[in-house]
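Worked example 2:
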Amino acid sequence: MRSSNLTSVTEFILLGLSSRPDLQLHLFLLFLLLYLMILLGNLIIILLILKDSRLHTPMYFFLTNLSGIEVCFTSCAYPQMLIHFLAKRKSISYSCCVIQFYTFLSFGIAECYILSVMAYDRYVAIRDPLRYTVTMSWGICGILAAGSWLGGFMFSAVDTVATFQLSFCQENVINHFVCEMPALLHVSCTDTTQAELVMHVLCIFTLLCPITFITLSYAHIIFAVLRIRSAQGRRKAFSTCSSHILVVTLFFGTIMSLYLKPKSLSSPEYNKIVSVFYVAFTPALNPLIYSLRNKEVKMALRKLLGKPEVT
């Protein structure tokens, strides 16, 4: 609970990406375009997978979940950010900041877990293809997907409570475009040691564990692929993983550089730049990565558009 004699702020002021008035309209148009790309790209992927029976496999089921998470994740930040580009007063109420913090973090953690599940799916498909449909049954897929979403909401709740037990006194100006933990720690007027400890402990379960699991999965995948005798078979096996590896590298690389960095070594400007990458650019690139590098998705798109398939 907030302490009434310490925390008197009822709203926060988000400074956004830039304070220059001449850049606000340009930034609005740029990020509006990126947001539309994210929504359109991910919703098209979801539609293609739902419409085309050839994509009704575990791999594409998890891709549907990833696309859904991306839409929710970016929608926690984008609408307010776009409004603030054009608004004179860039404020957010205390309660809305709490809600944004919780939902934004929930979907971010859920994405970490769903990317781990996708790595496990590729491991099973390549390591033991004959038992793939048994190991990755629809019941197991449902449990893994539901666990990813539930894990995000549970761990986020712990971090939200730890962060908003801090007091902010009159320091309500946040040098960021979203209510995010590193930014809030910078404006707290009380000791943030406990909140930082909670954040770093949670990072073990929500960042280090998933990335370790993904790394081990791909280590086993590489050994399995190297046992394939034909060069064509090895190329085909690696091609099913390349898109996922690229998405994992982009997403986890930026997240870890923000949340695993000590407060003393970070700065508001650095935090904003990193956040832009995983809030704006990575979600916009993911649909392109999965469509341009995936023959089955491109075939499903041609079918949806009524064009003849290219064999």
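The chain has one domain: 11-304. The chain is about 75% helix and 5% strand.
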